[in-house]
Write a structure and sequence with these properties.
The protein is of the alpha/beta class and 268 residues long. The chain is built from 7 helices and 15 strands. It is globular. Bound molecules: citrulline.
Length: 268
């Protein structure tokens, strides 16, 4: 298996002026665009602080969700899949992301009935765990699997019974620790992760289930202080990052970037 390493590069997309119009389940909370932009800048600083080169794609006011760039592509080393996001209103986000990724990756564009959000794809070594959710269907999974296979990466489907994406429910806190929100994944999914050699640690807060592993440091939402403490108790180096304005839009840490691995290594 190729070694784990911090991403070489991350692609982020600025927060549009229209961000308050993003898709979201909680219509009550007021979104503050200026604060979201400040949090986004701090997130970029945290990535750079982990030694990652950050590429910033300009915001698009016609696409209120476009800062959640993770959903538009899945990077598989030398190739990348440009997705058809499950929400039709998000499909216009993809083209601009392709224009940036084409510098480094051979692109494969999803078409037809296939739909998939990058938030449903969790990479661990040479495996992609893919959530079948309200945003990702079996045609999307099949398209991704065919490209991944050519890169020597296997694809394992998991059901996402509740919540938005697979990675709303779980993410990698280290190459061998999966943090998950209790009650969001079924036992079969947890058993699959354990069989893959992952230790499953229950997050203390639901938003603690989406963390971003940047090499030897893991970024955790400031709204999940007890999960941060738990991960520190597990020997991890944790950095808390404020992403509360993105939680209001059903997002968290992974969704704000696309990560590109170092040649020959894998990242999440
Ligand atoms: C959406 O509903 O599509 C956005 N408001 C949130 C997407 C979050 N994406 C992610 O966690 N990968």
């Amino acid at each position: 298996m190729s070694p784990f390493s911090a991403p070489l590069r991350a692609v982020v997309r600025g927060v549009p002026e229209t961000y308050a119009k993003c898709l979201r389940t909680d219509r009550e909370a007021t979104i503050h665009v200026a604060e979201a932009r400040a949090q986004h800048a701090a997130y970029v600083d945290a990535l750079r602080g982990s030694g990652i080169t950050v590429e910033v794609v300009a915001p698009d006011d016609a696409c209120p969700d476009s800062c959640f760039i993770e959903d538009t592509a899945v990077v598989l080393g030398r190739s990348a899949v440009l997705t058809q996001p499950g929400a039709p209103s998000r499909r216009a986000e993809v083209e601009a992301v392709g224009r940036v990724l084409t510098q480094w990756c051979e692109l494969h564009t999803m078409t037809g009935s296939a739909m998939l959000d990058g938030g449903d794809v969790l990479r661990h070594g040479s495996t992609l765990f893919v959530g079948l959710s309200s945003r990702t269907n079996s045609d999307g999974l099949a398209f991704l699997a065919s490209v991944a296979k050519r890169e020597g990466i296997e694809t394992v489907p998991l059901s996402v019974p509740s919540g938005l994406h697979l990675k709303s429910a779980c993410s990698l806190a280290s190459p061998d620790i999966l943090v998950h929100a209790p009650g969001l994944l079924d036992e079969a999914a947890l058993a699959t992760f354990r069989e893959a050699g992952l230790r499953c640690v229950a997050a203390a807060e639901p938003v603690g289930a989406n963390v971003l592993l940047c090499g030897s440091t893991v970024l955790v939402s400031e709204d999940a202080p007890r999960t941060a403490a738990l991960l520190r108790d597990n020997g991890l180096s944790v950095k808390s990052v404020r992403v509360s304005e993105f939680h209001k839009g059903d997002g968290a840490l992974t969704c704000l970037s696309l990560r590109l691995p170092v040649e020959g290594a894998w990242c999440t």
